[in-house]
Amino acid sequence: MENFDFVYTTDSYEMVEPINFDGIIVIDGICGSGKTSSIQEFISEVSKADKTARFIYVTPYLKECHRVAGTLPEDETSKDSPPLKDSLGEIMYLKKDSKDEYIEDTEKKTLAFKHPEKGKYGKLPHTLSLIKSGANIVTTHQNFFQWSSEVKTLLKAHNYHLILDETPNLISIYNGLNNKNKTFDKKTYEYLKKREILTVDTSTKKVKFHEKDKEGDEVKLTAYEDLFNACKQGRLYEYGSPSTCLINKYDPEIFRCFKSVRLLTYLYEGSIAKCYFDLEVFPQKMVDFTHHFAWIGMSSVKKLIDIVELSKEKHLSLDKNSLSATWFKAPSNKSKIEKLKVLTENFFKNKSKVVSKNRLWTTFLDKKDTLKGIGYTHKDNFLEFNARATNDYRDRSGIAYLVNVFMNPLLKNYLLSHSVSVDEEMYSTGEMVQWLYRSCIRDDKPIKVFVPSPRMKKLLKDWIEKTEKFSEFSKKLEEERWKDFDGTCNLPGLKL
Predict the structure, then answer these.
(1) Does one domain contain both 287 and 383?
(2) Among residues 249, 281, 316, which one ends one of the domains?
(3) What is the pLDDT of residues 277-332, one digit of tens each?
(4) What tens digit of pLDDT does each residue of 19-43 get?
(5) CA–CA separation, 487 vs 380, rounded Å?
(6) In whole angstroms, what is the distance from residue 440 CA to residue 119 CA?
(7) Which of 181, 341, 436, 484, by CA, is between 20 and 30 Å from 445?
(8) Does 165 lie in the same domain as 75?
(9) Range of the structural domain that residue 418 is part of
(10) Residue 96: burial class (beta carbons within 10 Å; 0-12, 13-18, 19+)
């Protein structure tokens, strides 16, 4: 891995302290290993040492933005509620006292993370205004992905550090050519090229949107709003000959405008984010945080994860491709899908032994209604299979993982055609483990898991075994390091 450097360390602050490194610092650790709390310590320490330092914290969900900033939403029942404000219109920074009542948090108010607010043209205008003023900002992956070229000049004018909590979707297949059609419509695409509303750079393959066609007639932008914005932000590239799809790729120059970039994730080596940074030739330094998890005394994953085997699973005659997106679409598998639903009902009723509110399951969204069965019909029982960084399901202990995850084949071929290596088994493992850690296992509590896909089940078992071996190695290493400890601390950065 030419652009990849591995760092092995045991001290949590050492893992996130300022490093003179012009690239991406990846803090890679299993869920619950303390990455978020350590990065918050990093923010606090750097802001004290450097009064000019500013931070942008990006996380998948708005609810997590409130947690990071120490704010409350206006409406706690709403998924997308802006922060609560006082009578003067200022954001309120809150914490709980000994009576479990909210009071003002002066430390949070000092850092004063601002939430970009949604206006007529989305959150981008207010985001640009906040960056221009040098505010500390907390925002979502969705807003981050909408940033335009104007942000680059503004970022360079300030001393900004970027923190990405989990990997945003930095490169993907573009699935929209107008506001109604959310799939790649080749006919529409070729029509827009024929009218020269869309043109493709012959060298870079970047797609450009023109507000007038070749006849000089103005284009109705409301019909192609998303396409127009994506082209304006310079994100779309044609791939294939003849054109097979559009690649939706984040502007890499934005990352180069930050003083430092830190990414908090797990199993980074198999992620699409790593493929993206390899593609754009970013140096990467990975700091291993899983070691920290091993020696802070959390339980063995082997003891926490009980993979439930159902006796009738074998009657489904599943193979390594079963439960993939393609498998679900095949008419010949209709009866197997019906049997899979019955097996899932049996798992929740007779094997998981938990009440409905403690159950969690997933599959592809378009198959959700087909597989939804008795005992797991409530909307809160379901969580999308690619969900990350949410704590809303940490009470769930009965888990059904009804999906077989593969990287999009078009995206995979695009990366391979640009000499980017792809570890699809690691990618699939990462997607599954991240999802499983939305449950109560993140609080060191046991879960029962139903994984009918033979491929995903094997990947999970392999991951458990490797994690166990690494945990044992970590513990032995720690014992060796502290064996002759005489009360004097000689470990760099470690405070006793």
Answers:
(1) no
(2) 249
(3) 999 999 999 887 765 555 455 567 889 999 999 988 888 889 999 999 999 999 99
(4) 567 799 999 888 777 788 788 888 8
(5) 51
(6) 37
(7) 341
(8) yes
(9) 301-478
(10) exposed
* pTM of the predicted structure, to 2 decimals: 0.87
CA 383 to the chain's CA centroid: 14
* Integer CA distances (angstroms), 134 to 48, 118, 156, 421, in order: 16, 19, 11, 38
Both ends of the chain: CA-CA distance in Å? 37
Give the number of other CB atoms < 10 A from CB of residue 217. 10
Please tell me whether residues 347 and 443 are part of one structural domain. yes
> Does residue 483 sit within a domain?
no
Domain co-membership, 233 together with 86? no
Task: Mark 34-59 as b/e (b = at least 16 C-beta within 10 Å).
Answer: bbbebbeebbeebbeeeeebbbbbbb
Q: What is the mean pLDDT of the chain?
A: 86
Number of domains forming the structure of the chain: 3
356 in the same domain as 313 = yes
**Residue 114 shares a structural domain with residue 202:** no
> How many whole angstroms separate alpha carbon 29 and alpha carbon 69?
22
Q: In this structure, are 140 and 187 located in the same domain?
A: no
Q: Is residue 213 part of a domain?
A: yes
pLDDT digits (tens, 9 = 90+) for 237-293: 999 887 789 999 999 999 999 999 999 999 999 999 999 999 999 999 988 776 555
**Can you give the C-alpha Rg of the chain in angstroms?**
24
pLDDT one-digit tens code per residue, 178-226:
555 556 788 889 999 999 999 999 999 999 999 999 999 999 888 888 8
Q: Which two tokens stand for residue 80?
A: 């997308």
